[in-house]
Amino acid sequence: MIRATDILIVLTYAMIAIVAALAFERFGLMSTSFAWLMGAFVFLIAGQAHSAAARSIERKAFDDQIHELKASNLSLLEEVEAANARIDTITETIRAEASEREATLTGEVRMLEDLVKRMGNGRTIAPAANAAPQPRQSSVDIETVRDALANNRIDLYLQPVVSLPQRKIYFYESYSRLRDAAGQVIAPASFIHAAEEAGIVAEVDNLLLFRCVQIVKRLTKSDRRIGIFCNLSLRSLADENFFPAFLDFMRRHSELSGSLIFEIPQGVFESRSTAAARNMARLADYGFRFSIDQIRDLDVDIAEMQRAGIRFAKIEGTRLIDTIRNGGAIGGIEAGSIEPRDIAGLFARHGIDLIAEKVEDEATIVEILDIDIAYAQGHLFGEPRPVREDVLDAASEPVRMAS
């Protein structure tokens, strides 16, 4: 369809030609016929000029469109190349993560198989003819213990550790419990005694530690703020067959270092071997922290504890109060030379938080608050309870314990 502007332009050129022809005739510059012929020529020249200008404008517009199209295609190509690069990066990341998960899973399976195999190869050591009388036999058969461990009938019980005076839960202490085929809980003393009789207590300790870490890994998948104390035995710590593989496992899961705290008794820490000290140092290199519990004497080498990566020290609330009342030495400082309110600060200056454990009554809490202890643990704040199965399966919600 002819545009209105084009019609107006043609009419304008026609008017110009008519005016030119009339002017030539009026002023006698040429005859009438020749004047009108000259007007037609003017109209033709003007039309050709307009057509040429219009084509030039259209050509420029077309060239601009082609340039814009080329620029758009180039930009689209760059975006496609960038998207392909991102896809390649994501693919490589997924492959690497899958490979790492496969390697981790393979390592876990191999470690578990090795522990179960070593446990299965254990043999009860018969007493010598002239040996001293043995303790009474455990009421739990060692095969029951082996069966519970091999079939993963291991429950994790958690007990809260609260802040004072708010009593807000900051940590949990974990305890491993075994169940027999009927679902009955096997008392720790019973299965440890049975393992000692069979000569496989180290294997049992290692397997319980490994299971504890596996469960903590699942619990902390959705909430890294959870801090869980996991007991570490001297046998596990010094086992040169088990611990290198365990260290490698922990290295691959160093993200747990903010959530997992390895706990050992004071006696174990103070009598640890060179191998055990070296293994502790390597765990500390991966960012893992340690706690000392079952403290019998507060006159400890705090600087050595700090160097070993100890970040928490647990002492019974009543024992702490008695130590202060009786004027016992604390952290190398003579009795009476430190104010009770400064005890927690003394440990804190070495990066160690004191935790009053086995707190059973409000009267103990009142006295503990007077010496500025930051954390407490005991039945007063909650008994150990098993972790719910659905939490272990999903690991998609904060820790909840069965009532």
Structural class: alpha/beta
Mean pLDDT: 77
How would you write the strand order of the largest sheet? 1-2-4-5-6-7-8-9
Give the N-terminus to C-terminus distance in angstroms: 84 Å
What gross morphology would you assign?
A: elongated
Transmembrane segments: 7-27
Protein name: EAL domain-containing protein
Domain EAL: 138-398
Keywords: Membrane, Transmembrane, Transmembrane helix
Can you give a write-up of this model?
Helix 2 runs antiparallel to helix 5, helix 2 packs antiparallel against helix 7 and helix 11 crosses helix 13. This protein is α/β, with parallel strands linked by helices and 403 residues long. It is built from 14 helices and ten strands. 54% of the residues lie in helices and 14% in strands. The protein has an eight-stranded mixed β-barrel with strand order 1-2-4-5-6-7-8-9. The C terminus is likely disordered.
Which tags fit this structure?
403 residues; 2 domains; TIM Barrel; 10 strands; single chain; alpha/beta; 8-stranded mixed barrel; disordered C terminus
Summarize it.
54% of the residues lie in helices and 14% in strands. It is built from 14 helices and 10 strands.
SSE topology:
Elements: H1 4-26, H2 32-120, H3 142-150, E1 154-163, E2 169-179, E3 185-186, H4 188-198, H5 201-219, E4 227-231, H6 234-238, H7 243-252, E5 260-265, H8 266-270, H9 274-285, E6 289-293, H10 302-307, E7 310-316, H11 317-325, H12 343-348, E8 353-357, H13 362-369, E9 375-377, E10 385-386, H14 389-394
Parallel strand pairs: 2-4, 4-5, 5-6, 6-7, 7-8, 8-9
Antiparallel strand pairs: 1-2, 1-9, 1-10, 2-3
InterPro entries: Cyclic-di-GMP_PDE-like, EAL_dom, EAL_sf
Transmembrane segments: 7-27
Protein name: EAL domain-containing protein
